[in-house]
Amino acid sequence: MSAPAASDPTKPSPPPRPEMGIRRGLASRIVGRTGGGLAAVLLALIALFWLMPTFGLLVSSLRDPQEMSKSGWWKVLGKPSDLTFSNYDKLLDNKDMTRAFFNTIWITVPSTLLVILIGSLAAYAFAWLEFPGRDWLFLVVVGLLVVPVQVALIPISKLYGDTGLFGTITGVVLFHVAFGLPFAVFLLRNYFAGIPRDLLEAARMDGGTDLTIFFRVILPLGLPAIASLGIFQFLWVWNDMLIALIYADTESAPLTVALQSQSRAFGANIDVLAPGAFLSLIVPVLVFFGFQRYFVQGVMAGAVK
Amino acid sequence: MAEVVLDGVGKVYTDGTRAVTSLDLTVADGEFLVLVGPSGCGKTTALRMVAGLEEISEGTVSIGDRVVNRVPSRDRDVAMVFQSYALYPHLNVRDNIGFGLRLRKLPKTEIRERVDRAARTLGLAEHLGRKPRQLSGGQRQRVAMGRAIVREPQAFLMDEPLSNLDAKLRVQMRAQIARLTRELGVTTLYVTHDQTEAMTLGDRVAVMKKGVLQQVAPPQELYDHPVNLFVAGFIGSPAMNLLTGALTRDEAGDFAVDVGSQRLSVPAEVLAARPALAGYAGRSLIVGIRPEDLHDAALEGAEPAPGAVLRAEADLVEAMGSEVLVHVSVDAPPAVTEDVQELARDVGAEEQVPDPDAAHSELVARFGPRTRAREGAGVVMRVATDRLHFFDPETGLSITEDA
C-alpha cells in the first residue's frame, strides 16, 4: 500500500490533501474516493447492471418453457405467480444432467485438493529447504506458467491413449493438476517465503521436524494464500470445458460439457440449459463465500516484534 | 542443566565471509554468560551455532558431554528466545508456550500443568487465551520467555531478547530475567549489544570484536582491568577517556605521564601492578581515565596533591540529576586506533572520530550533583591516579606484566 502516488506517469497526481499528511498510493486514493455517496450509487448501478444476465438466467430457469418461447424473461416480473420449480424437478430427474453434475464434483474436488497439497509441499521446499539448484528449478516452474494448455492437448491425448486414461475422470483430473501446479507453486512459494524465518527457527528449536513445521506452522499461516489458490483452482476446473470436452467421454463428462451438448444450432433446450447453468454457477459462489473469511488480512500480526 | 563448551569454533559463510574466528568459550553449568559486542561482531552467529540454526564451519560445540555439531536443533535440548519473540500468531498464549511440549508428545495433563506454572511465574495466567497480536510488547516478550522455561532445557539461548522493548520496560524485564534465571539456575548464553545489560545480567561477560573473542571475565573485572582498548572503550558509559600521553622518568626514578602540558604522577602501586610500564619510559602511550576517576576538586575542599590535577575549561555540562557530566578539553592529542574507530562505527559516529593529529581532546568527567562547574568556566579536576589505565599505542593492549 506504500506505492508512491506519483507512480502513474500518464497523469499528474493531484497534490495530496494537507490533512492526509503522508502521500498515499493510487489504489488507496481510488478506494478512498469510493466512500462518497455518489460513487456508492454509481458502483451499485454498475454492479446491478453486471448482475443482470445472471438474474435473467435465474428467472428464466424458474419459468415455464412454453412461456419462455413466447416472451422475454422480464415479463414474469409483473406476474411472479407464474414462477415454478418444475424445470429443476425435471433437471433432477434427468440422469445425464445429474451424472454430469457429480462428475464435475469428482473432477473439481480432487483437482483442487491435489493442487493444494502438492503445491504447498513444493512451495515449502522452494521457500525454506536448501538444496542445490533450488532457485534454478523454481525458475523452471515459473517458466512453465507460460506454456499454454493447447500445446499439450495432442501429446497428452497420445499418452492417455497408451495408458488407458483417455475418457476417464482420472485423466481429466491429472491434466488439471499438472496445469494448475506451476501457478500454485509460484503463488504459495512467494507467500511462504514471506513468513518470518524466526517462526520456523522457533519451531525447529521447539522440536519440530520439517513435516511438523509444515503442518503446524506453515499451513495455518499460509491459509490466506491457500484459500485464494483453492478458489482460483476450483473455479478454473469447475468452469473448464476444453479439457473435459477432449479427455472425458459421455460417461465422465462434467456439467459444462453436458450443457453444451444440450444447445442446438437453432433454438435450445432452455428448460434444461437455464437451471443447469444456474446450478453450475451457484456452487462456486457458495465456495467463494465459504472461504471468504480466510482472505482477511493481518493473520501474521503479533508474530514478531 | 549442562555445561556449554565452544572449542575453536569458527564460521565461514559460503561466500567466504568470516563471521567467527576460533572462539573458545565455556559456559559453566548454571552460569549466566553474556556475549556482548558491536553489531556484526559475530555474537549472534556464535549463538546460532550453539542453537543448531547455523552450521559450524570449524571447531566443536558441546552441550553437556555431547558434541552437537551434527545434532539437529530439535535434539540439542536447548531453548531459544528470539529478538523478534517469534510467537506463533495463529496460536493463543497457552498453545504458544506449550508448543514444544506438544511436539515432544507429553501427556496433556502434564503440558497443562507446566504451562500453568510457567504462566504464573511470568504473570501471564490471565492472558492464556489471547492471541499474540492482542498482547503488549512486554507480554509478548514474557510469552517468548515462557516458551523457553516450560521446556526445562539444558540451556537457554537468548538473542537480544530485550532490544524491542522501550527503555523503561527493558529495565523492568532485565530485572525479571535476572531473577528468573537465578531461580532456575539454568545455563544461559545471552547475546546483546547493550553493555549495561551485559554488566547487570552476566555472571561473566565475553566481549567480541569482528568475530574474535577479546576478553571473558566477571563484569567488575572487565570494567577494572580491560585487556585492550576495545574492551576499555566498549564497557562503561560514558566511555573511558582515551588520550595520548608520554611516560617520563625523573632523576629520583619516579614515573609520571605527560598529558599535553600537564603532568600526572604515576603512583608506585600502579607501577607495581604493571611492571611492563617501566619499559615505556620516554615513549608515548595511551592513557585511559574513567569519567568517575575525575573528581571535582572544588567539591572536595582540600587542595589536591600536585601531580594529580588536570585543569581544563568546561565545554558542556550535562546535569543528569544524580550526577553531572562535564565535558572538558585538554591539550593532549586524542588516542585514535583501529579499536577507537571500530567503537565509533558501532554507535554510528564514524565522522566524529577525532583527528589523531589534533592538539586537543575531549574528556568526560562524572561529577557529583553539587558541582559548580559551568560551561565556559575553568575546572580543576583531581585525577585518581591509582586507577589510570595504560595501553600500548601500537597493539592497543593493556600494558601489564608482560613486556
Automatic annotation (TrEMBL), chain A:
<feature type="domain" description="ABC transmembrane type-1">
    <location>
        <begin position="101"/>
        <end position="291"/>
    </location>
</feature>
<keyword id="KW-0813">Transport</keyword>
<feature type="region of interest" description="Disordered">
    <location>
        <begin position="1"/>
        <end position="21"/>
    </location>
</feature>
<keyword id="KW-1003">Cell membrane</keyword>
<keyword id="KW-0472">Membrane</keyword>
<keyword id="KW-0812">Transmembrane</keyword>
<feature type="transmembrane region" description="Helical">
    <location>
        <begin position="213"/>
        <end position="238"/>
    </location>
</feature>
<feature type="transmembrane region" description="Helical">
    <location>
        <begin position="30"/>
        <end position="52"/>
    </location>
</feature>
<feature type="compositionally biased region" description="Low complexity">
    <location>
        <begin position="1"/>
        <end position="10"/>
    </location>
</feature>
<feature type="transmembrane region" description="Helical">
    <location>
        <begin position="272"/>
        <end position="291"/>
    </location>
</feature>
<dbReference type="InterPro" id="IPR000515">
    <property type="entry name" value="MetI-like"/>
</dbReference>
<dbReference type="InterPro" id="IPR035906">
    <property type="entry name" value="MetI-like_sf"/>
</dbReference>
<comment type="similarity">
    <text>Belongs to the binding-protein-dependent transport system permease family.</text>
</comment>
<dbReference type="Pfam" id="PF00528">
    <property type="entry name" value="BPD_transp_1"/>
</dbReference>
<protein>
    <submittedName>
        <fullName>Sugar ABC transporter permease</fullName>
    </submittedName>
</protein>
<feature type="transmembrane region" description="Helical">
    <location>
        <begin position="136"/>
        <end position="156"/>
    </location>
</feature>
<feature type="transmembrane region" description="Helical">
    <location>
        <begin position="168"/>
        <end position="192"/>
    </location>
</feature>
<dbReference type="GO" id="GO:0005886">
    <property type="term" value="C:plasma membrane"/>
</dbReference>
<keyword id="KW-1133">Transmembrane helix</keyword>
<feature type="transmembrane region" description="Helical">
    <location>
        <begin position="105"/>
        <end position="129"/>
    </location>
</feature>
<dbReference type="GO" id="GO:0055085">
    <property type="term" value="P:transmembrane transport"/>
</dbReference>
From TrEMBL, chain B:
<dbReference type="GO" id="GO:0005524">
    <property type="term" value="F:ATP binding"/>
</dbReference>
<dbReference type="InterPro" id="IPR008995">
    <property type="entry name" value="Mo/tungstate-bd_C_term_dom"/>
</dbReference>
<dbReference type="InterPro" id="IPR027417">
    <property type="entry name" value="P-loop_NTPase"/>
</dbReference>
<dbReference type="InterPro" id="IPR040582">
    <property type="entry name" value="OB_MalK-like"/>
</dbReference>
<keyword id="KW-0547">Nucleotide-binding</keyword>
<dbReference type="Pfam" id="PF00005">
    <property type="entry name" value="ABC_tran"/>
</dbReference>
<dbReference type="InterPro" id="IPR012340">
    <property type="entry name" value="NA-bd_OB-fold"/>
</dbReference>
<dbReference type="InterPro" id="IPR003593">
    <property type="entry name" value="AAA+_ATPase"/>
</dbReference>
<dbReference type="InterPro" id="IPR047641">
    <property type="entry name" value="ABC_transpr_MalK/UgpC-like"/>
</dbReference>
<keyword id="KW-0813">Transport</keyword>
<dbReference type="GO" id="GO:0055052">
    <property type="term" value="C:ATP-binding cassette (ABC) transporter complex, substrate-binding subunit-containing"/>
</dbReference>
<dbReference type="GO" id="GO:0016887">
    <property type="term" value="F:ATP hydrolysis activity"/>
</dbReference>
<dbReference type="InterPro" id="IPR015855">
    <property type="entry name" value="ABC_transpr_MalK-like"/>
</dbReference>
<dbReference type="GO" id="GO:0140359">
    <property type="term" value="F:ABC-type transporter activity"/>
</dbReference>
<keyword id="KW-0067">ATP-binding</keyword>
<dbReference type="InterPro" id="IPR003439">
    <property type="entry name" value="ABC_transporter-like_ATP-bd"/>
</dbReference>
<protein>
    <submittedName>
        <fullName>Putative sugar ABC transporter, ATP-binding protein SugC</fullName>
    </submittedName>
</protein>
<dbReference type="GO" id="GO:0008643">
    <property type="term" value="P:carbohydrate transport"/>
</dbReference>
<dbReference type="InterPro" id="IPR017871">
    <property type="entry name" value="ABC_transporter-like_CS"/>
</dbReference>
<dbReference type="Pfam" id="PF17912">
    <property type="entry name" value="OB_MalK"/>
</dbReference>
<feature type="domain" description="ABC transporter">
    <location>
        <begin position="4"/>
        <end position="235"/>
    </location>
</feature>
